[in-house]
Write a sequence for this structure.
């Protein structure tokens, strides 16, 4: 059984997509061991509660430093015997200290076709605003391994959609989530589990 630790800060729709994939049998041998939220008000926590998934809140404000914040999360993940760390709308950057604890075992989803529109400052609705400003004809989402370079780790899976003439940042965000993110995140987790099983990573 692969044990996931899912890190969230907001709505948790990607968390929900993973929960759904597990419940309908699309991710055999996968369970969510813990959900960790950096925000005590995140709706993602309600989703964890509803599915009886253990959750913890680690708020950056209540930590003395970035190191303290990361080490608290590492402690929970280690105690819960987590195999794969899933960043699902987690609004904090993780340093080498964190990343080096879980080599090739941290995944992130980003709402663009990386390497385009990634890196520091490209998050949430801003990504979609930039895509429209640049008059891109296509956009999408990317699941990648996390390294200490923001949004620059090896790509696992991408899915694209067309940008429509009357798209707004909000309409684009919604379509990228529905048509790309919620589909590729569970699929990327399945691929990574297979690679671990086959000793490829
Ligand atoms: C998603 O757009 C994801 O790509 C980005 O943050 C958003 C999180 O949404 N990293 P949710 O919390 O999963 O609903």
């Amino acid at each position: 059984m692969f044990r996931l630790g899912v890190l969230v800060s907001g709505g948790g729709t990607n968390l929900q997509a993973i929960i759904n994939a597990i419940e309908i049998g699309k991710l055999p041998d996968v369970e969510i061991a813990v959900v960790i939220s950096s925000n005590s008000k995140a709706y993602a926590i309600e989703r964890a509660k509803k599915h009886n998934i253990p959750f913890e809140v680690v708020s950056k404000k209540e930590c003395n430093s970035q190191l303290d914040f990361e080490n608290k999360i590492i402690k929970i993940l280690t105690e819960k015997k987590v195999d794969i760390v899933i960043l699902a709308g987690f609004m904090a950057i993780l340093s080498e200290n964190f990343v080096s604890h879980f080599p090739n075992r941290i995944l992130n989803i980003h709402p663009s076709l990386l390497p385009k529109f990634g890196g520091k400052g490209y998050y949430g609705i801003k990504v979609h605003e930039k895509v429209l400003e640049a008059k891109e004809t296509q956009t999408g989402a990317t699941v990648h391994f996390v390294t200490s370079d923001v949004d620059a780790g090896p790509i696992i899976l991408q899915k694209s959609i067309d940008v429509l003439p009357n798209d707004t940042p909000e309409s684009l965000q919604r379509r990228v989530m529905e048509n790309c993110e919620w589909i590729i995140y569970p699929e990327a987790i399945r691929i990574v589990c297979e690679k671990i099983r086959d000793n490829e990573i």
